[in-house]
Amino acid sequence: MAVQTRVKPAKNDAPEIEKHAGLTRDTLIRLYRTMYLSRKLDDREIQLKRQNKIYFQISSAGHEAVTAAMGLLLRPGADWMYPYYRDRALCLMLGVSPLEMLLQSVGAENDPSSGGRQMPSHWGHPKLNIVSKSSCTGTQFVHAVGAAEATLYYDAHPKALAQAKKAPLGELAKHASDEIVYVSAGDGATSEGEFWESLNAACAKKLPLLYLVEDNGYAISVPVEVQTAGGSISKLVQGFPGLHISECDGTDPLSSYSVCQEAVNYCRERRGPALIHAHVTRPYSHSLSDDEKLYKGPTRIPSRTTRSCTRYRKSVKRRRTGIHYRSSRYFWCAKECWIRSRSNRLKRRWTTKSVKRRMQHWQPSRRRSNRFSRTCIRLTWTQPPQRSNRKSICMARPRRWWRWWPQP
């Protein structure tokens, strides 16, 4: 009886390299570590804001993949970068250390960006050619156009750089032969007049300017369907001559790298400006001064977890259950139960799991909805638990549980 055998093809490294967009193993590890570090820095700053150690925090979560991929292609100290406040992963990839970012967060004197005078997440580093932006969104577009015009001017006039170095602060003047200018913004900033002015000048003069529009679907609280005509900025700028337009999934680092590489090469060849429309997510609110539950429906908030660019195990597990750490002691989640005591009508927030675990001591009398369309469970006392259980249940004030504990 003949035995059927299967011939295994020889392993070839070329398909693997093509599969991973030409990136080596060490580069892929560096890419993921930068994305992971960016998310961890955001979470740490959120904890510092809860402790009142910093006064403002705006997160870069959801934007790490495309910005980290762009950081692999830009050259720090040669290219000019005008990033906006969600480009933390880009600055980490370019060489900004986590310590320097935390110094900017707390407003320290040793902050290399502005000596503690600039707002947090307004990136800047003179040695890396990272120009700090203003809090007025859209102003960085006009600055980037001026830098791109200076690039072409230095290419056409070789002696201009020597004259610039003789001017005050001339030691900061530098120029590379194939340098480009990078500018980024969110989808909401494309409605500003500076964006269209810069796009018109860049296409008219064929400037080596690279636009990165990071579309997370919301301009603070305004959806992209209301903010942008047609809901897509890449379709809206199709008529500009000489503009290289590409669209990618900003949560996929490999596909983002391929699209960014093509756009960077287009600008370095002095063929004109390029625009990348990256679709990203916004897992958190716009900033800690904003509450996205006030304008996002219950169906839109869980959808952000399906396209996470940093899919590490603990974060996925927490997001699927709807739990996020708001501080070191308490939990805050969308799937929460409101327990109202009969004695002093205080409200307490609980996780669904903790309520189910301790429901043997309580019996629901009735269930109704309050004016905020939240489920309110009214509980009656049936069996007094042990003293240790009382302390564990009273998470808000474990030492003063008798002040609000309902009597049997």
Tell me what you see in this structure.
This protein is of the alpha/beta class and 408 residues long. It folds into 2 domains: 271 residues, Thiamin diphosphate (ThDP)-binding fold, Pyr/PP domains (Rossmann fold, 3-Layer(aba) Sandwich), CATH 3.40.50; 69 residues, no CATH class. The chain is built from 14 helices and 13 strands. The strands form 4 sheets. A 5-stranded parallel β-sheet has the order 1-2-3-7-6, sandwiched between helices. Strands 11-10-13-12 form a 4-stranded mixed β-sheet. Strands 4-5 form a two-stranded antiparallel ribbon. A hairpin with a 6-residue loop joins β10 and β11. α2 crosses α4, α3 runs parallel beside α11 and α6 packs parallel to α8. The longest helix has 26 residues. The N terminus is likely disordered.
Q: Write down the CATH class of the largest domain.
A: Alpha Beta
The stretches of 5 or more residues where confidence is low (pLDDT under 50) are 1-15, 312-353, 359-405
Number of helices: 14
Q: Would you tell me the structural class of the helices and strands?
A: alpha/beta
Helix % is 25-40%
Number of strands: 13
The total domain count is 2
CATH superfamily of the largest domain: Thiamin diphosphate (ThDP)-binding fold, Pyr/PP domains
Cα(first) to Cα(last) distance is 81 Å
Order of helical and strand elements: HHHEHHHHEHEEEHHEHEHEEEEHEEH
The overall pLDDT average reads 76
In CATH, the topology of the largest domain is named Rossmann fold
Binned strand content: 15-25%
Q: Sheet with the most strands?
A: 5 strands, parallel
The strand line-up of the biggest sheet is 1-2-3-7-6
CATH architecture of the largest domain: 3-Layer(aba) Sandwich
The radius of gyration is 26 Å
The outline comes out as globular
